[in-house]
Amino acid sequence: MDSFEINKIIAAVLMVALIVIGIGKLSNIIFYVEKPETPGYSVDVEQPVLTSAQTAPKTTEEKVDIASLMAMGDPVLGEKVFKKCAACHSIVKGGKNNIGPALYNVVGRKVGIVDGYKYSKALSGYEKEWTFEELNGYLLKPAKWIKGTKMAFAGLRKEKDRASVILYLNQNSDSPLQLP
Questions:
Q1: What is the pLDDT of residue 50?
Q2: Nearest of 100, 74, 56 to residue 164 by alpha carbon
Q3: Where are the domains of the chain?
Q4: Residue-wise pLDDT tens digits, 39-79
Q5: 127 pLDDT above the threshold of 70
Q6: What's the longest Cα–Cα distance across the chain?
Q7: What's phi and psi for 15, nearest 5 deg?
Q8: Considering only CA atoms, which of 125, 82, 119, 84 is closest in space to residue 100?
Q9: Which of 82, 81, 87, 78 lies closest to 152 in space, CA to CA?
Q10: Cβ(155)–Cβ(142) below 8 Å
Q11: Which fold has domain 66-171?
């Protein structure tokens, strides 16, 4: 096939594209419809009556009773649920960092201080410790609890699973913390 044949094919494709675009623009001009300023009919929706308790804005977040949450946990179940975490984290003493940092001794230590692991700016600048409450909030939805974390885990929705994992993490420590 010589260059003249290729030019004819390209010209045909471009001509079809221009015709389709042109027909679209022309049809918008020919068949222009003005939208009415007011709708043809209105639908009346009955608004529910709100009590004063319902109308008051919620300014305080729901406080979690961490003691009762920890009471529903089971370290054996936590070990099973932790298998989701084991793809990225090590839990053994002296374990190495994987995609995520090693989690041995995590309960009670400061956030973002494992040697040899490059934390996100959000975690390295987070000035708190991994308490039972912090772990519960973080495990519920990591990206929402600490905005900017690079941990791409969706979270543990079930309270019993979170409590069990926290108990399992606390158990895997040189000096486990006293339960609340």
A1: 59
A2: 74
A3: 1-31, 66-171
A4: 777 777 776 665 555 444 443 345 778 888 888 889 999 99
A5: yes
A6: 84
A7: -65, -40
A8: 119
A9: 87
A10: yes
A11: Cytochrome Bc1 Complex; Chain D, domain 2 (1.10.760)
